[in-house]
Amino acid sequence: MCILLSSTEHPDYPFILLSNRDEFFRRPTEPADFRDTEDGKVKILAPLDLARPEHGTWIGAATDGKLAVLLNFREENYSESYSEISRGIIPLDYLKSGDISVDEWVKNLETSISKERGVDPKEEYPLRKVGGFTLMYGNLSLESNGKISHLNILSNRGDRGKVHVPIDSDVALLDADIGHKTTFGLSNSLYSNPWPKVNLGEELLSKAIKYSIVRRENLQELVTSCFEVLSTDTLSQEMASDKTQDFTAKMMELKKSIFIPPVESGFEIAIGSNPTIGRYYGTRTQTVIVLDKEGELHYFEKNIQTSDVLTEGEVEVKHFHFPIRKNK
Predict the structure, then answer these.
(1) Is 328 within the bounds of a domain?
(2) Does 122 fall in a domain?
């Protein structure tokens, strides 16, 4: 039950993004780092999911300004969430797409997935065969007014759309109320039908940014506030540790809390050699991305849990940063 929160409200930081990855702690994952691309023109900063052979990701940024964040769509039947091909290849495909337009990238996406699968490129691999997802993606290069243009939404369970579109923009929108929002949230539902945790997250992030502006907080203070928003836990501890309650029923409750503490899955017997499930499920990775007005992108990552052996105490925050080019 991951969550993404983003904002363009801060005058000194044109774009701020918060992300919680909620997943089984046992699922093998490589922390964020810079990755080379085949042509060597850009580097990609992203963690990798090692549980699937494709080694995809759920979040990443490229040195040319591209950003991609993917959230799974919550299927009614949990068993349907495992797809024939990992949806984690989609963010990486966009981040490696070079100078083509977003429309051209979407048009070529199914062919690109076919190549990844090793099948005849003439036989496009349909997105419907990929597990349900929503992708927020676009370029964070600053416009001449010091702001980003907008970001895009792509889902194989709902409509495409745009978010963070300036109110004076002539960009066509399917839903202007959502498209013009300065603070936006998304979880594992359609972006037009947000869960309670998303509404709470948007409210808390907006308040944190307003407070940051009044207090003239520096970058580190702002990032600390963002991690506090991501750590908002409203889940019943009794429910989380209850081994008798069905895991699917527990998942329904996770729609309400931004942060998910370790939840007993009840899958101990079923684990076997399957690396995608485990004893505990919850928030395991937190990411904060901040773009400053000079075009420097800052990427902060916390890996809270990395296995079914739970850890407590202070968690190291990794900080990466790099400049991205401005649009002329």
Answers:
(1) no
(2) yes
